[in-house]
Specification:
This protein is an all-alpha fold and about 325 residues long. It is built from 14 helices and 2 strands, in the order αααααααββααααααα. It binds 2-acetamido-2-deoxy-beta-D-glucopyranose (NAG). InterPro entries: PLipase_C/P1_nuclease_dom_sf, S1/P1nuclease.
Length: about 325
Amino acid sequence: MRSSIVLFGLAAVHGANAWGTLGHETVAYIAQNFVASSTASWAQNILGDTSDSYLANVATWADTFRYTTAGKWSAPFHFIDAEDNPPSSCSIDYDRDCGAGGCVVSAITNYTARVQSTKISSSEVATALKFIVHFVGDITQPLHDEAYEVGGNDVDVTFDGTSTNLHHIWDTNMPEELRGGYQLSDAKSWAADLTTMINTGSYKSQKAAWISGLDISNAKKTSLAWAADANAYVCSVVMPNGATTLESGDLYPTYYNNAIPTVELQIAKAGYRLAKWLDAIAAKSAKKRDVDLEDEDEDEVVATNGMSLLPLPRQLSDAQLRRAAIGYGCKH
Ligand SMILES: *[C@@H]1O[C@H](CO)[C@@H](O)[C@H](O)[C@H]1NC(C)=O
């Protein structure tokens, strides 16, 4: 009896993860491979974890939290519902697309300020870091930057004989098909391969563009650019001929073969960006301690609750009503 409850619990957590467990842990390991050693110490100190999986160990915490009663309020932070018109036009507009309860862009902005704050408790600083590790991953998943059919959750598809939905195959089925599992060790080896591609392989010449304009003091602008970058793949790769054609037939192997390079690219990008993001934050935090700031800076003001980040309240769109109806979660 007890073991079946435990198994059920694991299955529920596994199924619910955005960029599944494998994707998020891979992003975290890639970041660990690229951060400065001073950044690693900074993060290990905040998280109270000096193991060699200190970011990977917290990479899916935000997904576990969103499905608890206490953490339900954070569910909208995992995506931004772009109300664009794929496949003919893809775009992100903060005032149009970020919901009244927040979105992944406001969340990255809020937690980037909070992780640097000296005015909140150390456990709240740790929470901020855990959220950042997760959301910098989520924002690169194209369907986390798309409102169409609740981010593809309502596009029913078959993948390798399994009935599921378009959102879920991007989060989970396609990464797991590629790597064959979702254990921490699978994430570590995928991260090692992508790290090699970033250092010496086909991503070497692209990586500078992934972090161009990266600016922790304008986290909203930076994360909006990341959202727009991922959203563009909705039109070009996720549903280039619209979604209806995806609802018949099996998306394995033809669709998969076409999409998997983008899955890998987005995971690699997220890990590399996360490393540079954390490097910038850790460096600024170290400098702040040295200077002993007296002035209240912009970050501190945002850090109190981040409410100034949110767009003005407005009537809910149809897409927002549908999102609310499924409790801001993912279907699977
Ligand atoms: C900022 O983070 C705090 C702590 O998690 C939260 O209470 C607040 O709602 C967040 N604000 C925004 C705009 O996300």
